[in-house]
């Protein structure tokens, strides 16, 4: 059993209250702030970094580990069209104080970059040597008209992506990336209301995007921008840890989006289009019509 199969079994166990606008299945949960105000929602997400899975204990800079913990959570808020506000942190570790001080310093400095308050947390020791598990629960807010969901893509939309893909872990992009919050502010509510971030692999996350919207995605595989050092298209599609945005745009907005795009240091690429749902096909190659999910390797999944 893998991560996705596990989640399909356990998510139905949890009943959602009337204050839950969007429950499990998107980058963040969306909650009503109060019953009398429907103009703004609360965003709530949680993510973690684990030694020798999300970073290399004996190799990677501890401060960058702390920064990554914050940034990967900010990326989730960005994908929903929102703004981060605050967070709490837990740690379960077996490592020395000097190392932990560097990690927490990274967390503090990165939180300051995004004007976030880290306002609580918890700590536990663990027995296995060099094991570290850091978890950050993040809160944010989003205007109703800017809320972006995986489920909002429509047939006829064009699929765009920010940045480049592949070779993130070996190049250390996964530690030094910048969450696309500024780009989200520009896009959300104006050019799109269907967006998510790419963390587990472009194929894996496009599959989730298409499934949530009940559509088929047609991918322009020759238009995928490759990060330097990426060995092949397959690596670009499945390596993961890219922390880029994918989003859908109505075709009549394409020209104005490209013309208005103000981020000269962040590539904007049209990488596909949204089709009406085709039975048995979630994601296909635009040129060959090949099922891109056929070989089963879509990206990173935690095994169980």
CATH topology of the largest domain: Phosphoribosyl-aminoimidazole Synthetase, Chain A, domain 2
Count of individual helical segments: 9
Strand content: 25-35%
Level-2 CATH architecture of the largest domain = Alpha-Beta Complex
Strand order of the largest sheet: 1-2-3-6-4-5
* The CATH H-level homologous superfamily of the largest domain: PurM-like C-terminal domain
Morphology: globular
Q: State the name of the first-level CATH class of the largest domain.
A: Alpha Beta
Which bin fits the share of residues in helices?
Answer: 25-40%
- The chain-level mean pLDDT equals 94
**Main sheet summary:** 6 strands, mixed
Q: Compute the CA-based radius of gyration.
A: 19 Å
Number of domains: 2
Unreliable spans are none
The chain-level structural class is alpha+beta
N-to-C order of helices and strands: HEEEHEHEEEHHHEHEHEHEE
- Ends distance: 6 Å
Total number of beta strands: 12
């Amino acid at each position: 059993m893998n991560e996705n199969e596990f989640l399909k079994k356990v998510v139905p166990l949890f009943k959602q209250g009337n204050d839950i606008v969007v429950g499990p299945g998107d980058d963040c949960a969306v909650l009503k702030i109060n019953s009398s105000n429907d103009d703004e929602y609360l965003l709530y997400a949680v993510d973690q970094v684990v030694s020798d899975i999300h970073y290399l204990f004996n190799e990677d800079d501890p401060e960058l580990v702390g920064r990554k913990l914050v940034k990967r959570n900010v990326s989730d808020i960005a994908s929903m069209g929102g703004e981060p506000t605050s967070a709490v942190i837990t740690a379960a570790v077996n490592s020395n104080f000097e190392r932990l001080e560097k990690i927490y310093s990274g967390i503090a400095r990165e939180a300051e970059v995004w004007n976030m308050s880290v306002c609580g947390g918890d700590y536990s020791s663990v027995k296995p040597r060099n094991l570290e598990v850091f978890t950050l629960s993040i809160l944010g807010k989003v205007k109703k008209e800017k809320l972006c969901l995986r489920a909002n893509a429509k047939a006829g939309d064009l699929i765009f992506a920010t940045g480049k893909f592949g070779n993130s872990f070996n190049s250390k992009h996964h530690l030094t990336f910048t969450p696309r919050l500024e780009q989200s502010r520009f896009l959300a509510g104006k050019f799109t209301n269907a967006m998510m971030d790419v963390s587990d692999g472009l194929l894996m996350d496009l599959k989730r995007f298409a499934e949530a919207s009940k559509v088929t995605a047609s991918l322009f595989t020759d238009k995928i921008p490759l990060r330097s050092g990426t060995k092949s298209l397959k690596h670009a599609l499945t390596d993961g840890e890219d922390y880029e945005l994918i989003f859908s745009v109505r075709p009549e907005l394409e020209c104005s989006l490209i013309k208005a795009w103000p981020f000269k240091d962040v590539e904007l690429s049209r990488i596909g289009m949204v089709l009406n749902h085709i039975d048995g096909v979630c994601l296909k190659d635009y040129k060959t019509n090949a099922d891109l999910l056929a070989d089963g390797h879509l990206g990173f999944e935690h095994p169980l």
